[in-house]
Fold this protein.
Amino acid sequence: MRFVHAADFHLGKPFGNFDEDTRAALKAARLEALRSTGELAVNRGADFVVVAGDTFDAGAPPSRLVKRVLDAMASFPDVTWVWMPGNHDSLAAVDLWERIERDKPDNVILATYAEVIDIGQDVAILPAPPSVKAPGYDLTDWMGSADTGNRIRIGLAHGGVTDFGSEDGGLATIPPDRAEQSDLDYLALGDWHGQMRIGPRTWYSGAPEADGFKGQAAAGVLLVEVDAPGEAPRVEQVPIGQYQWHRIETDFFAGSDPVEVLEETLPKFDRELVLVRFVGTGRLGLSELAALREACDKVADDFHFFEANLRNVGIEQNAHDLNLIAEGGALRVAAENIFAETSIEGRTENDARIARLALSHLFHLAQEVTK
């Protein structure tokens, strides 16, 4: 028996920290991830797909988005979707789940009750749907007493395990050995957005499309095979996400070529599908820092999104750099006074950062005048 374990599509996620075009593209990619999940199920001969919660980012998604999700699932008529609420789209969203129950296609089974769902003659699914965003107790406890006969038992839950935690900072209430306690052949978890193995029979599938700079495993779904009740599952991590998110931290030092260092650290391929948050630390001379800023500005458009944070790059004292601002006079005195303020000795880090920005700006203006 083979099935796809998915969760945390978070359709409708606003991505409020990005520009309008980026927000639109990231939203579209999440819906495309749902279609890619259906395609994977068809291409790999999966019997069904389990969705372990948080299909939607909120309990009141736009009506047209709900319609598109239902249409996407209906477009794979040979795939059975077992769809459970999560904490973002819990059963407290009564209007949402009543609408889905009313309009869902025939190949969708809603796991909205803590009761056994039969998949053919050989598989029993035991869901633990969240009634509210943070129930505060173990919803999977009932699985141990569920009588399913001699069938493959698959648990379906959403939340944090007691030794791991929740993506949303809620209470971790699911025992990490729930599969063993309740004689489950596999426990499909949602909530954590990175794919993670909790035990031989327990996995988080992660988000099918990445949504942050956390450096987790490639976004995707899990393809799970179970030969018979009691047999160990075989789990394949299948990446399906379109966009790659990278947080890159680089420590610079004066005398190096910061532009060369920047290029060495940045992804080389498919940059139009890459989001980068670049953070610089260390120290550079004024001319080196200016060259780094210019290089960041030039490379930004190569990526789907590029953000450079150079606020923590200190300024290395260099007489030549100060000469490029002014060799004497009041402007040179001002430059030296500002440079003295860039040290954190005797002042706050924020004051030193402001001084570094001011000195960099003064250097830039001086260079513009001499061009």
